[in-house]
Design goal:
homodimer; alpha/beta; Isopropylmalate Dehydrogenase; ten-stranded mixed β-sheet; two-stranded antiparallel ribbon; 11 helices; 41% helix; binds 3-isopropylmalic acid
């Protein structure tokens, strides 16, 4: 019999609540013969305040012994900005070499969008996850004085760019439209831009069926609101990906339904799946959070582990639920989770 | 009698056409006693192909001897990406220390927006123009090999950040809502982020009437489409400013109406005013380009030089023209310019 050995990190704020629903739906959808084992980790603000620790080497070892990781949200106003982001979230992405940060955007029927009309939106952003301006390179001199200088170094390697570009081409190849757009700012960031553009063009030669184009990141934000249908798969740098995927989430139904995967396709380390939204401390503990983004992240997790049918069942359940939602009275976090669990168990 | 000594750079593509209309409206609005002198410069793709030059020291000297610069657009597909951007546009911004890159966004009555409803949009982005990832610091090793490494260094100084933050506070103070939002990514880019955040908080103490807040750049893109009314004045880094002002233009009527100023408030060098749109080679020479963004850039130019009444007259003319435009047959570039010239002379 098979097993699924899952590390669970509820984290801060609404993380707790949404992860509970994600697990509920996971249990409901998994085939009978798959033994689900979950181990909960207490990372986040509470642990940081209690011990000063965010993510230790021992923690990484413990996490490593799992097939995948499900994360709710990390972050709390009581912790200075950057401490948990750099000390936990980014540390984990870098330690486990999560270089494919996968963020699908699909505007589902019945879902409200801030855009006029009801444009077709169905694209995937492949955001590089381990390089660029996120490396933490840089520093400060003369801190706090009028002569302070602070630098941030974006580091881009052929190795790092090629593997994520290749992954994106493969994903584009597998989709009906087979189109891949590189988003960068190669007219200004010419060093990194040339590296990205050259590698993109090289790898393109191996995927003759994939149509390619290039858009500057500033122009990409325009198209995301005026013509989102032009996008199929997008590959981009870590920081540009951060920015455009929040915008992509906003136009395709909001961060309440935006899922993501921090994927290491090699399998050397477990991949991590999390909603794009944060810990939302203002509504935490009130049963108001929409668990849909977490449930869709569970679908990405299942697909990553080879459970394609189960992933699709979750996505269909979410689609059906959202299509009906307009007509439903407001439901709590767990009511939405229950409804989805019933649907996937179908 | 007064004089206005203007350097004019039509540039590439539609630049020529839209600048002609900008000058038409400028002539029509200027008081009789102001002697307008214009000198045209041939920068852009043609000059680059003919001479290999983009912007020489002699060019900079010649430009310096003017009260202000009006630019159409620079850029052509025949020139490799980055050559004119770094060699002309950014070189000029840096040489003339254009540290206040001013980009107002106002959704005018009758103007189409991709956003549902007709949200209120009336904010100004103050984008830093001489630092950040735009400095051209960085480099490449092992170029073209599988071991290539390319870096981009974002350079941020207390001097550079303070002056633009102070400018933004003063602009917020002068507006009815008196609200200033810092947009950065201080939870990830912690070195630059702390510099920006600390200086922002310090300068805030000098402007007790200004309400302040902070938003990460990724979240800012969400609010720009879900709640643009929350913004009054935004101050941000060079790259974040590049990205969010294209999005801001898109939601507030498109780049056809987005104006900008590259301002050196010290007056040591002339400031430069230009539409946010590019050279649009696909529609160049057809009289199809909308000159409105250039005309609004002329208004910013006039305001910068102290002609507040004339600037306001242009803005009112544009407003009135746009409000009527839905009911008008499609007009050519020069027909729109003529209509605006008549209105401001009105
Ligand atoms: C919280 C932060 C470190 C993170 C990022 O910038 O990657 C978040 O914005 C995201 O997109 O997952
Ligand atoms: C053309 C390019 C160099 C420029 C920039 O990135 O600043 C443009 O996008 C702008 O916003 O003015």
């Amino acid at each position: 019999s098979r097993s699924l050995n899952l590390a669970v990190i509820p984290g801060d704020g609404i993380g707790q609540e949404v992860v509970a629903e994600g697990l509920k739906v996971l249990s409901a959808v998994l085939p009978q013969d798959v033994k689900l084992e979950t181990k909960e980790f207490d990372f986040g603000a509470r642990r940081y305040h209690a011990t000063g620790e965010t993510l230790t080497d021992a923690d990484l070892d413990a996490l490593k012994a799992h097939d995948a990781i499900l994360l709710g949200a990390i972050g709390d106003p009581s912790v200075p900005s950057g401490v948990l982001e750099r000390g936990f979230l980014l540390k984990l992405r870098f330690a486990f070499d999560h270089h494919v940060n996968l963020r699908p955007s699909k505007l589902l029927p019945g879902v409200a969008t801030p855009l006029a009309g009801q444009p077709e939106i169905d694209f995937v952003v492949v955001r590089e996850g381990t390089e660029g301006p996120y490396t933490g390179n840089g520093g400060t001199i003369r801190k706090g004085t009028e002569h302070e200088v602070a630098t941030e170094v974006s580091v881009n390697t052929a190795y790092g760019v090629e593997r994520v570009v290749r992954d994106a081409f493969a994903r584009a190849q597998a989709r009906p439209r087979k189109k891949l757009t590189l988003v960068h700012k190669n007219n200004v960031l010419t060093f990194a831009g040339h590296l990205w553009t050259n590698i993109f063009n090289q790898v393109a030669a191996e995927f003759p069926e994939v149509t390619t184009d290039y858009i500057h990141v500033d122009a990409a934000t325009i198209f995301l609101v005026t013509d989102p249908a032009r996008f199929d798969v997008i590959v981009t740098d870590n920081l540009f990906g951060d920015i455009i995927t929040d915008l992509a989430a906003a136009v395709s139904g909001g961060i309440g339904v935006a899922a993501s995967g921090n994927i290491n396709p090699s399998g050397d380390f477990p991949s991590m799946f999390e909603p794009v939204h944060g810990s939302a401390p203002d509504i935490a503990g009130q049963g108001k959070a929409d668990p849909t983004a977490t449930v869709l992240s569970v679908a990405l997790l299942l697909r990553h582990l080879g459970y394609e049918g189960e992933a699709a069942r979750i996505e269909e359940a979410v689609s059906a639920d959202l299509a009906e939602r307009g007509g439903l009275p407001a439901r709590s976090t767990s009511e939405i989770g229950d409804a989805l669990a019933v649907r996937v168990a179908g």
